[in-house]
């Protein structure tokens, strides 16, 4: 069976991944996090998160895949000792020096995509250095990945969904050039996602025309569409890949819940032998779900060809509107007491998020004030039956179609 690996930027996202059938979760920690701008997990949080994962029979991997100097290596030695005591399941590393440090512990080592691994000979060398799994470069085709899987001495992991960097396996220096921020230490400000214009020394502008079978946005030449392989699960499974990885450690819990659940369903359908029978019916719904959360449009990356589509801004079909908080939960009757500061009506779809709750989405089918059923409320305290257990201080959001925001 293939392993489904989901991202998490905070405790809410960890719970969202676990509650939606991720086999493993990967997180970053401060100082060595390639998503430093949005990191909300400290090394002190790892003990609780590890227990949460292990209690559910899942695994936790910790990313320490930044570029480091001698001073940072010394601090890393101390942090690795702490992580070993927390019994994490693997460290994700790209730097050879950090691999050498990690080898002095019992923690398994996974090679980060930042190492840009593209061939079997490199995998043999990394095996000799103590690496047990490698995340292959995103620039490889499916045929190349399949061939590597046949001969690899270690486990193979590949990305199947999420953002694609314009630079080779994320080795980008645009943020350093424009903002004096180090993208290779987790400080990427994504200047590639901005509109750009190419002008020659003679002040002539490059205009990218729309091709017959393509829809290039000429102003965002450096911003690829997101990868989405939900329609191609059989090809990925047949390639012999050991773990499917979802990109998104900068994304909120509802994104993690949606994408993890969707890919989990697709993988199960294939493993149950029902792909040929039911996939045609289910794929449109899966794509609608994936489009509902943050995305820049979808492509298949380098799996089948060179990516040819560039992206606009976020193309999600809804946004979250902060409308309230859970003030109490009555477990026997499955009813949440919610303090609302925005309006809510029957038929609205809400998202409830919390560190233990993760992220759940449900439609409002009934709500009460002082025991009386109501259809609409502008603000105030309500009772609402939930599909699953929620907790005090969980945040409540309303899903609002983007074109209707602000109406």
Automatic annotation (TrEMBL):
GO terms for biological process: proteolysis. PROSITE patterns: PEPTIDASE_U32 (PS01276). It comes from the Archaea. Keywords: Hydrolase, Protease. The keyword Kinase does not apply. Its EC number is 3.4.-.-. GO terms for molecular function: peptidase activity. Belongs to the peptidase U32 family. PANTHER family: PEPTIDASE U32 FAMILY (PTHR30217), TRNA HYDROXYLATION PROTEIN P (PTHR30217:SF6). This is Peptidase U32. The gene is ydcP_1.
């Amino acid at each position: 069976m293939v392993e489904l690996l989901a991202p998490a930027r905070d405790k809410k996202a960890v719970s969202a991944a676990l509650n939606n059938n991720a086999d493993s979760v990967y997180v970053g920690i401060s100082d060595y996090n390639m998503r430093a701008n949005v990191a909300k997990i400290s090394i002190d949080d790892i003990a609780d998160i590890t227990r949460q994962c292990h209690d559910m029979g899942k695994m936790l991997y910790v990313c320490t895949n930044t570029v480091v100097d001698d001073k940072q290596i010394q601090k890393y030695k101390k942090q690795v000792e702490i992580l070993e005591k927390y019994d994490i399941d693997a460290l994700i590393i790209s730097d050879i020096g950090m691999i050498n440090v990690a080898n002095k512990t019992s923690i398994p080592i996974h090679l980060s995509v930042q190492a840009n691994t593209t061939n079997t000979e490199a995998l043999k060398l990394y095996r000799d250095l103590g690496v047990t799994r490698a995340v292959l470069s995103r620039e490889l085709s499916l045929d190349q990945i399949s061939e590597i899987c046949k001969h690899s001495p270690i486990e193979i992991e590949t990305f199947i969904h999420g953002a694609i960097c314009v630079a080779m396996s994320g080795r980008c220096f645009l943020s350093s050039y424009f903002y004096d921020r180090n993208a290779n230490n987790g400080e990427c400000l994504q200047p590639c996602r901005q509109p750009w214009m190419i002008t020659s020394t003679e002040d002539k502008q490059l205009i990218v025309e729309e091709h017959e079978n393509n829809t290039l946005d000429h102003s965002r030449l450096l911003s690829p569409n997101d990868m989405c392989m939900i329609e191609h699960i059989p090809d990925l499974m047949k390639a012999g890949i050991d773990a499917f990885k979802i990109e998104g450690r900068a994304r909120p819990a509802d994104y993690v819940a949606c994408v993890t659940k969707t890919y989990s369903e697709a993988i199960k359908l294939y493993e149950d032998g029902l792909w040929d029978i039911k996939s045609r019916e289910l794929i449109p719904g899966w794509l609608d779900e994936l489009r509902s959360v943050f995305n820049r449009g979808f492509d298949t990356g380098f799996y089948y060809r060179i990516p040819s589509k560039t992206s606009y801004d976020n193309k999600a079909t809804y946004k979250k509107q902060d409308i309230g908080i859970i003030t109490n939960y009555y477990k026997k009757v499955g009813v949440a007491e919610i303090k609302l500061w925005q309006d809510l009506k029957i038929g609205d779809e809400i998202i409830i998020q919390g560190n233990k709750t993760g992220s759940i989405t449900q439609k409002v089918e009934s709500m009460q004030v002082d025991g009386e059923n109501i259809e609409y409320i502008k603000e105030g305290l309500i009772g609402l039956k939930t599909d699953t257990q929620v907790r005090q201080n969980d945040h409540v959001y309303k899903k609002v179609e983007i074109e209707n925001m602000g109406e």
